[in-house]
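Issue: ligand-bound run for adenosine-5'-triphosphate - logging full I/O for the record.

Environment: standard queue, default settings, no custom constraints.

Inputs:
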Amino acid sequence: MTPTTTTSSSSSSSSSKASSKTMTTTFTKPRPPTITSMQTSLFSHLHKSSWSGTPIVSDEIRRGGNLRIFSYLDLKSATRNFRPDSLLGEGGFGSVYKGWVDETGTAAARAGTGITVAVKQLNHEGLQGHKEWLAEVNFLGQLHHPNLVKLIGYCCEDDQRLLVYEFMPRGSLENHLFRKGAMPLPWATRMKIALGAAQGLAFLHEAVKPVIYRDFKTSNILLDSEYTAKLSDFGLAKDGPEGDKTHVSTRVMGTYGYAAPEYVMTGHLTSRSDVYSFGVVLLEMLTGRRSMDKNRPSGEQNLVEWARPYLNDRRKLFRLIDQRLEGHYSMKGAQKAAILSHHCLSRDPKSRPLMGDVVDTLAPLQDLKDMANSSHQSTSNSLSDRSRYSNGNGSSHHTHSYHNGYLSPHNGPVRGSSNATQLPSYHQSPRQYSRGP
Ligand SMILES: Nc1ncnc2c1ncn2[C@@H]1O[C@H](COP(=O)(O)OP(=O)(O)OP(=O)(O)O)[C@@H](O)[C@H]1O
Ligand SMILES: [Mg+2]
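Outputs:
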């Protein structure tokens, strides 16, 4: 199968960022480059009325969740009329705004009071949006885990589809790893995020009714104030195979650079496809490089292909590790993580580990102190270490501020900052890790 590509003139995203958007089929509006699959008519069974007619929608929503049902006006007022300076980000399916709602109800709250939320307003040019919205409501409404973002509620009114999440103050892993001007994430934080994200995926795969996430990538890993990773975006999630079935057959959706090769080739989806994507993200964390980067020389644009030869070779490993870490990483940890990533990226899906195994491998890598650059050993993961990362003047933790609630260095590109708030200085979470419920 050869996915076709559409191009777009839109978006504030850079070209490399744009290519990391979720593949989809039915948008009519110019969008960032996306992959479309063969079966563009998949959603033809979704009659227009299921997009605009609430009664049918209410049948489609699985019972049992504890979600708040917001009115459009509630959310309009919670986000200050979807003000551009409340914009947290834009994805393939809509824009995300910061807002405030009542502690318990659905009414909007004054800025800085009640609960801080992220409100995703889906584009409504295509039926695809409804399907995504419904999947999100149905999966996140039922699944609860410390490494999944919490869905607080939704709005479904006429042709409006919105989702209301807990606000994640440190934004996405993508921003921390790749945004121009962002300070390099310390090694220990990368390992913490890798473990948290792995725990989230393991939880999904090990659920009584297993779920395949299908869109694991850095922009879908959100971070709370302590860098706890939380998976967001269940729009493409699928129930795993049932009975003696080995896979689910789907059209190919996901994101270039993250989707497992056998899934792209056959449309056969298994939980091992998520494991492959996890391997890609782990590699991005090790290298500080994007899975696909058209701005690099031709042999380096595809991260997995470029990195494969280094992953299993101790002597070459240092060439792979993010230069911006300046040697502030555990040698043993880097080796183990590289081997793990290699394992996850096995071409044969059956050779990939289970996410539970990934969790077990990452858990002991959390506190290693054998720094590659030993002159920095005693201070690794400390505030002074972070200071050195920034500009060598020891003031990194003073150079951060909140922009729309995201931690940004002052010299980084920022959007409007009407909600500027100082973040507490960096600290490691004392939280213990476990596999989760
Ligand atoms: N709960 C949240 N709290 C804080 N910021 C969020 C939250 N949800 C999303 N965002 C921000 O909004 C951005 C856009 O999210 P969205 O999921 O719509 O798109 P994306 O992940 O970048 O791309 P894609 O369409 O492929 O999923 C995210 O990258 C993140 O920066
Ligand atoms: Mg997303």
